[in-house]
Amino acid sequence: MTKILIVDDERFEREQLCQIIEEEFLHEVQTRTAENGRQAVETAALWTPGIVFMDIEMPGVNGIEAAKRILTQLPSCKLIFVTAYSLFNYAYEAVKMGAYDYILKPVDPDDVIRAVRRCIDQANTEEELKAMAPVAETLGDSASYDKTTLLMSNVKKYLQHNYMLYGVSLDSISDILKINSSYFSMMFKKSFGVNFVDYLTNLRINAAKELLADPFLAAAEIANMVGYESPNYFTRVFKKTTGMTPTEFRKLHMSAGKDGSE
């Protein structure tokens, strides 16, 4: 069961988030609340939540500082910031800092549910991949087709749910599976027909294309949302993959949409 800590100095906001989450994930989660940053850090240290919803603007220890302290204690914890649109710059910095996501106030229940589901799916696929380590260790030149297919099916599922994380790499997955990275690289290319980096890049760029349909999302935001810490690097990769910059791609497809609607 996933533990979710909800942090906000406004009682109504805390109760609203609790209600949305508990109604949707009744038998999947446990929730607790904290009314300020200091209390959040103390609760996280004792209760070890897997997900934290964190308001940014709070008196005393604000959400950014509290998040930094929590991530120091619990590096695998997923931080989701809840913020007013006027505080977007803070939220953007939070995502760069390592937070999982941010949601604008007033919260949309669909956004909350989507964020929680993604967090749970990520955790589940990682556990499923870890469970494949004994299978991976038995693979060799004479590995059975069924074992290899099962393993790579789990790798594919893991990547579909985790491509946006900065730390996802050939080496990180090899470490989870406890196998040699060179062997895993060879097996990956044999299974999918492309190397790992190209496969991961395609997942990220395809996700970026969908996000570019939202005219209110800046390219720098999208870069972070699909797993790139550097917006400039994201732009270079996007252009290399599609032949256009993100801005050019957006303009082209917005124009195509207008033409199609007329």
Protein architecture, described:
The chain has 262 residues and is α/β, with parallel strands linked by helices. The protein has helices at 11-24, 37-47, 63-73, 88-97, 109-131, 133-137, 145-162, 170-177, 181-192, 196-211, 219-225, 231-242, 246-261, and strands spanning 2-7, 29-34, 51-55, 78-84, 101-105. The protein has a five-stranded parallel sheet with strand order 2-1-3-4-5, with helices on both faces. Helix 3 (63-73) links the parallel strand 3 and strand 4. Helix 2 (37-47) runs parallel beside helix 3 (63-73) and helix 11 crosses helix 12. The longest helix is centred in the middle third of the chain and has 23 residues, at 109-131. The model has no long low-confidence stretch (mean pLDDT 89).
Chart the SSEs and their pairings:
Layout: E1 2-7, H1 11-24, E2 29-34, H2 37-47, E3 51-55, H3 63-73, E4 78-84, H4 88-97, E5 101-105, H5 109-131, H6 133-137, H7 145-162, H8 170-177, H9 181-192, H10 196-211, H11 219-225, H12 231-242, H13 246-261
Parallel strand pairs: 1-2, 1-3, 3-4, 4-5
What's the short version?
This protein has 262 residues and is of the alpha/beta class. 62% of the residues lie in helices and 11% in strands.
Q: Can you give the helix content as a percent range?
A: 55-70%
Strand order of the largest sheet: 2-1-3-4-5
CATH fold name of the largest domain, please?
Rossmann fold
User: What's the number of domains?
Assistant: 3
Compressed to H and E, one letter per element, the order equals EHEHEHEHEHHHHHHHHH
Tell me, rounded to a whole number, the average pLDDT. Answer: 89
Spans of at least 5 consecutive residues whose pLDDT stays below 50 are none
CATH architecture classification of the largest domain: 3-Layer(aba) Sandwich
Total beta-strand segments: 5
Report the sheet with the most strands, covering strand number, pairing sense and barrel closure.
Answer: 5 strands, parallel
Per DSSP, the total helix count is 13
Shape type: globular
For the record, the CATH class of the largest domain is: Alpha Beta
Distance between the termini: 50 Å
Quaternary structure state of the chains depicted: single chain
CATH superfamily label of the largest domain? Response regulator
Structural class comes to alpha/beta
SS strand fraction: 5-15%
| Radius of gyration, taken over Cα atoms and rounded to an integer in Å | 20 Å
